[in-house]
Amino acid sequence: xxxxxxRRQDASAIASIxxxxxxxxxxxxxxxxxxAAEVExxxxxxxxxxxxxxxxxxxxxxATFSYRPRDYYRGVADFSVYVDRDFRLQGAGRMAMxxxxxxxxxxxxxxxxxxxxxxxxGSRHLLASLSFREVGVxxxxxxxxxxxxxxxxxxRLL
Length: 158
Ligand SMILES: CC(C)(COP(=O)(O)OP(=O)(O)OC[C@H]1O[C@@H](n2cnc3c(N)ncnc32)[C@H](O)[C@@H]1OP(=O)(O)O)[C@@H](O)C(=O)NCCC(=O)NCCS
Hints:
This protein is α+β, with helices and mostly antiparallel strands. The chain has helices at residues 11-24, 36-40, 92-106, 121-129; strands at residues 2-5, 49-54, 57-66, 76-83, 111-117, 133-144, 147-157.
């Protein structure tokens, strides 16, 4: 497996992987499938996106997003990481995140943050092993399928 910066042409593959994560109901409050066009809108000048390829096929991605529009938060980015179901537990998530941390630092970002469902032990384990700190728990932060869910805030200084 290899990592590289994502291109707009990867949007369809990224959307397929994201939609698997949405279906699994363990990774995000998003409940409806996303289109390639919606993923294309993630691409901007200042927020790196990484893909992991195996045999020329995109099998995972990690992406940064604007955290807040305020200028003084320009160095803080939200992030997420998703691996194709058929390629989980093979190191792709770790590779994607290591490359994302490197790219984010190169892009001048100073912090990555995210919110992880408390029950998402795989993601929490991966991020803790990459020096992300669990800041605390947002209780009943939003509803997924009508159920209030708690999320762990994670951060890593770059
Ligand atoms: C969470 C996710 C990104 C992990 O990626 P991955 O490629 O499967 O994980 P890796 O193979 O890189 O494993 C990294 C570490 O996490 C552990 N891990 C990963 N998934 C795990 C799981 N479901 N349960 C327990 N441990 C898990 C691995 O054992 C490994 O630990 P180690 O290095 O101590 O041996 C992936 O399972 C996924 O895409 N899940 C759905 C989307 C999601 O939850 N994204 C995170 C929210 S943004």
